[in-house]
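User: For my dataset I need records formatted as: sequence, then structure tokens, nothing else. Please produce one.
Assistant:
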Amino acid sequence: MSPAPFRAVGGAVLSDHGVIALAEVRALVAFYAAEAASAVNGAVWRRQAAERARALELAVAGAESWRRAAGWADPGAADQA
């Protein structure tokens, strides 16, 4: 499987389907983290879910850093602008 399709670019989190708001990304992190911790799921899916959660966490951190550098006190507020 290819790497998780999430990147921070210019203060945005991009997926293979387009831009995702930070609040939605945080919800995806929680989902993938729960899937990675679930004993019901197979080992391959748990590993992939953990990789996706980590990729999303890194993308959020990158987007937040960029937004703060651009002057946003609340990085999430940029999604409502």
